[in-house]
Amino acid sequence: LIFGTLYPAYYSYKAVKSKDIKEYVKWMMYWIIFALFTTAETFTDIFLCWFPFYYELKIAFVAWLLSPYTKGSSLLYRKFVHPTLSSKEKEIDDCLVQAKDRSYDALVHFGKRGLNVAATAAVMAASKGQGALSERLRSFSMQDLTTIRGDGAPAPSSPPPPGSGRASGKHGQPKMSRSASESAGSSGTA
């Protein structure tokens, strides 16, 4: 990590900062070769990891790329990468434009399908669960009304739904909290 990325990243920063074109080009060639190396490494690791000294050879290769004496990245770039990219540049650009257009079209297509699926699921859930949802909401609102008796509103005519025993006491009278019953008792004696 330090050898292959952090060291070159720092010197690339220095090249950009100093605006030295020669250094800038040198580090750009390194990063192009390093990108190709890491891409190839993804596949070669699967098949060649059993090879003796495979990882040591990879470290030696990165050292060779970085070395100012061997100028490995410059050599590979000028001998192989630049001529290949120059001869195939038009086809690569066309493929990239087509891929960009297709990816945008696919994004729009799958985005529309995703929204349609979500809308259909929401409508189905609302239609199937409408009765249960309205009953659930009604039970919550009735339960809330039976616990709020202090505002002078009459109690609802229908009994609270089953299972809401905490809203009423033993004789159908609403339960009051301890502080509310104490204040009611003290206000009656005053």
Automatic annotation (TrEMBL):
Broad class of where this protein is predominantly found: membrane
Keyword set includes Transmembrane: yes
Top-level taxon in the UniProt lineage: Eukaryota
A GO biological-process term: endoplasmic reticulum tubular network organization
Signal peptide location: none
Keywords noted in UniProt: Membrane, Transmembrane, Transmembrane helix
Membrane listed as a keyword: yes
Localisation: Membrane
Region (Disordered), start-end ranges: 147-190
Ranges of compositional bias, category Low complexity: 177-190
Transmembrane intervals: 27-53
Protein's membrane topology: Multi-pass membrane protein
MF term (GO), any: olfactory receptor binding
Cellular component per GO, a single term: cytoplasmic microtubule
Family annotation (InterPro entries): TB2_DP1_HVA22
Family membership: Belongs to the DP1 family.
Protein name from the UniProt record: Receptor expression-enhancing protein
